[in-house]
Design brief:
Beta Polymerase, domain 2, alpha/beta, elongated, 6-stranded parallel beta sheet, 56% helix
Amino acid sequence: MTIVNVGLSYRISPAEVLEKLVVPSMELDDVLDRLHADPAIDEVVVLSTCNRFEVYAGTKGPPEPVIRAVSDMVAARAGIPVDELPQMAGVRVGTPAVEHLFSVACGLDSMAVGEDQIVAQIKAAARAAAEAGTTGPIVTGVIDAALRVSKRARTETTISTAGISLARAGIELADAHLGGLAASHAVVVGTGAVGKLAARLLREAGVQRLSVASRSEAGATRLAAAVHATPLRAEDVPAALADADLLITATGCIVPVVLAEDVRAARERAGGRALFVLDLGMPPDVEPAVGQLPDVTLADIDALGRHLAEQAVPADIPRVRAIVAAEVDSYVGRLHEAAAAPVIGAMHSQITQLAEAELLRLHDRMSSLSDELRAETTATVHRIVRKFLHGPTVRAKELSTDPEGAVYLEALRQLFGPTPSEAKA
């Protein structure tokens, strides 16, 4: 089976396209089911984050129908002609797809290089696909391998400590803009994974007052209790902005939840107090016009990307890339050996069955042979068979990892004639 990856990310894809590709949790099953229903796709996982949309599919057939099916779905969801997609999407088949997933899991492809939030996101994507019944041993296997590589890279290098999350980067940006957060009032809207992280980071930064809001009052209450904050109802947020210094949003809504008119009214009561707005939502939670209001600074994910691009590159990146390269070679080698196993098994089975048949014929013709001689001739013939098969078996395993390994295995099929049914046995 072949792994196929079609991916869009902040590196080459316009933000407005990525916004349309974000898959809310309640829609993920439908997206997975529609992809899995295509006859070319045997297994599929969708990784959807704030700055990437990636499909990893397994197919027993050629990759081209899978690429077409995924491209059609992506183009329809993004509202763009399918022939424009190659300009903003990466397509990887086989080993390059494996290498890309391993790099993503290690944080090498993240906007905040080394950030470990991507690990939780990959695990969540795999769990969702398993629950939807759209994955299997091949895609699950490559994801499990990617998570192991990520763990090794984060254990053996400093990539995790060098990397920071988008939330932390945004809070650092706010701290610099506001001249410190110790005396500030911060409001967090959204109690999902990103909102929780932002609230914890703000508490660690020592903000004087912290308020959290959510569409779910229960969610806001739980998070407020965990970080010693004040819970707010969603409708109370505009009023809270009148004396806030920092607003962070991460709701997962498909339409803006912070409107320019509400912020304008709140800031009129603030008496010229500066407000830094950090929009971590994708699609955006904040109307763009908010950034045009007096005394208001709006930073979205694009702004964070520019900020992070100016930061020093973690020194351990070459070491992590070397780990990824070594692990890719090892993983692909194991796949090739596994592909060779049925052919080798069929070869052993056919030669052994032939030897057994000839031994039976010999012993029938020489019925006077003693039990001792029968045992001796049987052992001798099987010893010859083992010695004969040893060389081809070793070479088959070695050459299975070669780019031309498939040609060698096909030659074995032609020479020894294992049938498809025998190869599956």
